[in-house]
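PROTEIN DATA CARD
Card holder: MarR family transcriptional regulator
Chain length: 149
Origin: Nocardioides nanhaiensis
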Amino acid sequence: MGDERDVGPAVRRRLIYQLKHSLLRLEELHAAHLEGSGVTARELGALLLLADREPESQQQAALRLGVDRTSMVALLDGLEAKAFVVRRPDPADRRRNVVELTDAGRATLDVATRASDEAERELLADLDPPDAALLRELLGRLVIGSGGG
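Structure generated from the sequence above:
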């Protein structure tokens, strides 16, 4: 009798299976590497987005990350509770708030980015550097081509 976890070659070569299980593995690695950083991979994504831009509204950030408004509010509430972000009235439009990283948020971002880099290195460890770079390039092209980035 074979290994019950072996799905067989027909399933293993399907892109949906490969991408799903690569993502699951990367999420496991991120959870392990980010454990001491104070943020999750999802929170890291939000911090990275906010650090890269002028202060913007939570609605703008939600749109850029591709999450619904309710999820974004919950995500920012968590980051605000950790003192990593602050919401302030927009000087150009007092009816809306903008979200900015705090100094603690920037320090956490530095630590968490290094941890995320290590998780990605571990995932790609079986690929030689040119193949790892090619995988990133090809996935980036798929994301851009699908309107996702």
